[in-house]
Amino acid sequence: MKAESIREKAAHVLPSSLERMSHSSFWVNHVKNWLWVFVRSVLLAGISFIILYPILIKVMIAIKDPVDLYDASVVWIPKHFTLRNFLLVSESLNYPKVLLNTSLLSILVMVCQTLSCVLAGYGFSRMKFRGSGLLFGCVIFTILVPPQTIMIPTYLTYKNFDILGIITFLTGKPLNLIDTYWPFFISSILGMGLKTGLFVYIFRQFFRGIPKDLEEAAWVDGSGTFGTFMRIILPNAIPALVTVMLFSFVWQWNDSFFTGMVLNETGVMSSMVSGAWGQIMFYLRYTETSLGMDPLYASMIRNTAVLMAILPLIIMYLFVQRHFVESMERSGLVG
Amino acid sequence: MKQPRVGLTLHQRQKYKGVWFILPWFAGFLLLFLVPLINSLRYSFSTLKVNDNGFSIQSVGWANFKNALFQDEHYVRTLTESMANMAINVPLIVIFSLFAAVLLNQKFKGRGLVRAIFFLPVILASGVIAAVENGDYTQGIIKSASQTSSGEFALFRNLELAKLLLNSGVNYQIVQYLVGAVNRIYQIITASGVQILIFVAGLQSISGSLYEASKIEGATGYESFWKITFPMISPLILTNVVYSIIDNLLTSPTTQQIRDTAFKSYQFGLSAAMAWIYFVVISLFLWLITMLISRKVFYHD
């Protein structure tokens, strides 16, 4: 019964497909196609492995017991599984507090930076007068100048912070803003934070793609410039906003240049990771004398610390990545 | 009777209101960028001493620059090293990211997952995490342990391939370059997250009808890549080259040295001079590259 129906169908289909198959080019194409799919899969799998490798290696090191370090038969998969490393890092480096500090700082920077950049980007996309091109050239210029060039004056600015001599006049001496969050707030709200020029550029490209008719209609209906911006432009700019917010958050989280320069005392992730070694050695000497001086063990703990520093980012990425990839595609960075 | 126009038209008024939007950025540009930039230039011509109530400056002319270029034993070497590194890495990064973007733009099963993995370096490759990556004991042990089983064989194969290429008459320098690229594959892949993202976005914006038309005309995939994809994406190649150069330079050994000179040996003037030399070299390099590439770039409109 079944076979019959298949045969019937086959009889219907066969003549044309047989004819096609009889050409050698059909088979060549077929093989070519499969070969390409195979090569592509191998390539993609290989590259994915290279990208994931450091994370995998860190996970494997972090869940190992110290006993396994000297077991030559243990390379990847540990024999003694443990979560003690995580606990140790969390205690010795004060992880919960660092996590809170870093999250707060990154969120603060993200919000301020996005705000100043979306305003500037919109302004640049709509403003046309003599010199506006030059002004935008300044944005590009801020991207091109390496931050190291203005590093020392920036440091001194925050060390002796003063606005036109007002603070010296009031209190007798300028403010020292090193080791506070103020430098981050000031630089990001004024659009001069990390890679801010790039964000302004992204927003400007995006807003140039939004037709002006939209705003004109709003003006005709009696909406003011800022009202139009809030109610018409911003809701349309969500893809670009998401992209910039994610970049801004992540780059602040990972940044060691500006953060290392401005914050010495307050613990945030990037300084925690780079200073983890000494701190852990110090902690171990007072708690576990047997393991305290072992460089291998310390390295193991340091790997755990790095893993714990990037873990929140990875978790966040898992949730937003789909949105992120889509929004990047629609954010008009490509003109 | 036509009334004389008072003030500005609606459009003109809106244009000038744009200025208000730029104001915060502009204030930041003046106070936190231009002033420090000029100050930094000033410091590079002087010695700077930080004391309890601020700092004092003494002009020394070109001494800092002379010191950086002719006396400091590391600076010139580090600088050439960073520039050479960049000149090697940037083409590889751009080519790899274009290749990866073309792969990711095709339709296959699990594309979402693969894309998510490919863009992971955007998050992880920057800053301190990459810095800790090198020279770590435990990782080194695992690496060498894995190498005794498979890695050595791969290395061997790598050399064989190099020999094969040399014997078939490929230029020695090119072979060295390729072998070096294979060895630095991790560095290159992790540095190309953003570039892949930009290329993928660019590829999506190419209209599919172009490919359809060329297919009907009998073009192969290879031909349509060089005749359609490549010209359409060429403005982005320029963008990506510039981005890669800047990104590469942020983590170069020179920046590390500039930082150490300032904050470890407290030679602020010397550090500023080094930073300025660095900036001038980069600018020249960028200008040259942009001139060369923009000649070939195809603009659709």
From TrEMBL, chain B:
Annotated ABC transmembrane type-1 domain residues: 79-290
Membrane topology: Multi-pass membrane protein
Pfam families assigned to the protein according to its UniProt record, in alphabetical order: BPD_transp_1 (PF00528)
Keywords: Cell membrane, Membrane, Transmembrane, Transmembrane helix, Transport
Spans traversing the lipid bilayer: 20-38, 86-105, 112-132, 185-203, 224-246, 266-289
GO biological process, one term: transmembrane transport
Methyltransferase among keywords: no
Signal peptide from the UniProt entry: none
Family annotation (SUPFAM superfamilies): MetI-like
Any one Gene Ontology cellular component term annotated for this protein: plasma membrane
Origin: domain of life: Bacteria
Location(s), subcellular: Cell membrane
Family: Belongs to the binding-protein-dependent transport system permease family.
Name this polypeptide is given: Sugar ABC transporter permease
Source organism: Paenibacillus agri
